[in-house]
Amino acid sequence: MSRQLADHLQYFSELGVDGVSRDPKWRTRPNSQATGGGDCPADAGGPHEDAGETLEDIKTEIGPACTRCKLCTLGRSQTVFGVGNPRARLMFVGEAPGEDEDQKGEPFVGRAGQLLTKIIEAIGLTRDRVYIANVIKCRPPGNRNPEPDEVETCEPYLFRQIDVIQPKVIVPLGKFAAQSLLRTVDPITRLRGRQFDYRGAILIPTFHPAYLLRNPSAKREVWDDMKKVRAILQAD
Ligand code: URA
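That is the input. Now the predicted structure with uracil docked in place:
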């Protein structure tokens, strides 16, 4: 219990809360009150409390057994919504759940996911302080690329997730996510190394961790990208 309390207090201190008061007037909080960023570069983002919609609303609307596209008939076991801090200032977007994710119902939990966790930790963060989602929420059979009708059906939910979270930085992982978000067919080699304005965030494409597993020498470019991400998050 005291461990839980200590973790809670640590979490709030990271959000910029430097004390608690027992004065009853502090128990209600006006909606317009700003939420301070404190010294934590990864969470305590913008005016999320005022947004009408929550991530839970979107998750409930999709449901675990969505039938809006053909992937529900092609062997997926459940939808994989997204995971992490709903107030994250850094959001990663992958392509689609793979087999491990389909089983667990959580994005990036397989080998590529373990590498993503290391990438996140390399800039001093943890998985639960960022947000991780995919362009589409269901596993395509045999891990094939998502098809245009599947993306068209599913991506509005990702856009709504982004609009609720209002991250400062979005990192699309790999060609598919970068091309889908930016609505381009430019290759990832042309997209990475650049920054884009995207739905109020700064979008910094980088290579997919699965690509890094096959091409470890590309880790250097990803590290360059992540240093840029860290600098942006630390800038305010
Ligand atoms: N690859 C992705 O793009 N997303 C996942 O969730 C896992 C692997």
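The pocket of uracil is lined by residues 94-98, 101, 107-108, 112-113, 134 (CB under 6 Å).
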